[in-house]
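Incident log, structure service

09:12 report received: a user says their structure output differs between two submissions of the same chain.
09:20 pulled the input from the user's history:
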Amino acid sequence: MPPSNKKTKKAGIETKGSPKITADAPVQRPQWPPLQLGRPNDILSLHHLMPAQIVTVSKFWSAALCKRYVTFLSSLPLVTTPGVPKKGDAVRVNDRFQVDDPDFASSLWNSTGLKELVLREDVEQEDEKFWGGEVLGLNPNIRIYRYRQGQFFDQHCELVMCIL
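09:34 re-ran on a clean worker, output below:
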């Protein structure tokens, strides 16, 4: 649940006057650290946390790669989202970095083994209904979120649709 206005002010969350994230402001693509996974795909598997909703891959990144990315991501210029959402949007107060980076999305999909894991023949038939069609890759809209104490993402429903 989102905090009340009094709690929000006590927690030091700026809801008015915070820098706004706009589509007009161009964001330079970061120099992402190399994606060296070093894990064979035969030990990785897809886990359905919520049937037909959430899939995870445990231990996809090594501890060293996770640490490298946590350090790198903490250096990005995150901006606090506005506390007042547009009509129809969920209330979200957090820090965010967003960039359109098709090269990074392609590298994450093609050079890490993720593509092969998702498209493996032994899971293809089971997951065909789950994926809802042919899997083509990852969304190039890369978003990094950080939630500090008192920040939140109110109840919401995610709907992702691809039209080919």
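09:41 both user submissions now match this output. Likely a transient worker issue. Closing.
09:42 reviewer note: The radius of gyration is 18 Å. The first strand starts at residue 46 and ends at 50.
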